[in-house]
Amino acid sequence: MEETSQIIKTTGENGEEVFMKLQEIVTVDDKDYALLSVVEENSLPDDDEADELIIMRMNKTEDECTFEIIEDDEEFNSVASAITDSDELEEAE
After folding, report:
1. Is 21 exposed, middle or buried (0-12, 13-18, 19+ CB in 10 A)?
2. d(CA 79, CA 26)
3. Predicted confidence (pLDDT) per residue in 4-61, tens digit
4. What's the pTM value of the predicted model, to 2 decimals?
């Protein structure tokens, strides 16, 4: 997993601005996925703060990176399993 920490501004389902903290990027089956947490614009969380993670597929081009909701249950479960397995390995070390 790639360690990162940056704030991304995106558009929510109802057209509102949503700010998300990019926690990590994971690669599963040659596709990149972002682990994101929603944050308030004026109150960015501490790194130690426990956040609810959102997993989204990343689509990169030369000019930009977009995030996509994972609608396929099998794909989502595969990514979630890879994240869980990786966390368990880190805790064992």
Report:
1. buried
2. 8
3. 568 888 887 788 888 889 888 999 999 999 999 888 765 555 554 556 889 999 998 8
4. 0.73
